[in-house]
Model the fold of this input.
Amino acid sequence: MEKLNLLEVELTKDLFLDLLMPEWKGCKDLEISVLSGGITNKLYRVKSDMGDVVVRIYGDKTELFINRDYETECLRKASDLGISPKLIKYMPELKVTIVEFITHGYTLKNKDFLRVELREKIINPIKKLHRSNITFPMIFNPLVEVKKMFNILRDLKEYPEFDIRGTIEKLEKLYSAIDIPDSEFKPCHNDLLAENFILVKEGYEHLYPEPMYIIDWEYAGMAPPYYDIADMFQEILVDRETEKAFVNLYCDGQDFDKNLYLIDMFKPFPDIYWFLWSLIQQNISTIEFDYYNYGKAKYLNAQKNLDYIEKHYGVKL
Done:
C-alpha cells in the first residue's frame, strides 16, 4: 500500500480521528480549519470539547534543512521553560507535529512591535530563553548555516543575478571580526518573525501562565544571542529608535553599546540565510508563495546592512 502523503489530501474528520488522534474518538463539536500564513508547512487548527490543537504537516523536502527530531526536542524544552505552547504529539513517520493552540491568542504583526505597551511582553520570553540553562541539540553557527544553504541551492539552480559568493566572502570577514566562539552560544529560536509571537488576548490572561508565547522551533539551536535579536529586527523592520528601545530592555540597560553593536554586526546573516532559504523553497515547495521576491528583498536588505557596517563601524569587508 502506498504511503499516504498528507500534503496532497484534505485533512478530514475521519482522517484526523483514525490516523492522527484516535484518542479523540467520541469527541463533540469537532471542527477543522486551515490556518493561513505558513510558507514552510501546511497548517490546520482542530478543536473539539477535548482540546484545541495545531496540526503541522511538513512541507516537501524540508528535511534538507530541518531536523525534526531536533526541532521536537527544542519545542519540548521551550515548553517546559514556559515560553512555547505544549507539544501534543510528534509523528515523524507521517511528517506531522501536533501542538497546543493558544485558543485566546492573537498573532502579532510587524506593526505591533511599535506598541510601547507590548515591548516587555515581546522581549521577556527571548531573555528567558537566552538566560536559561537549557541546551538545544543543534549548533546554529550563522556562517556555517549560510554556507549549508548555499550548498543546497547550488545543487538545485544557479542565480547569476545575485553575487552570492561575494556576499559570503564578506560574511566570512564579518564573522571573523565578531569573534564569538561556539562555546559562548546560547539557546536561540533563530526565526523571530512577528507571526511566531502569540499574545494572550486581554481578559484571558488568567487562563495562561504567561502573556506571550513563541511558536515554530524548526530552526532553533545554540547560537549567538545577538543573532536572534538581529533576525527579529530584520523581520519586523522597525525604526532605529524602536530597535534601541528593545535592545535596552533586552540587556536591562547594561552594556547597551556592546549589545547594539553586536546585533548590528549580525544583521546581514539572517537576511542572507533567509534569502538562500527562499530560493531553495522556490525550487522545492508546493506552497503557493512568491519566494523569489521575498528572498530578493532579504538580499537587498543584507547589502544595505553590509554597507552600513563598513561605513558606521569601519569594518573592512
User: Anything to note?
Assistant: The mean pLDDT is 96.
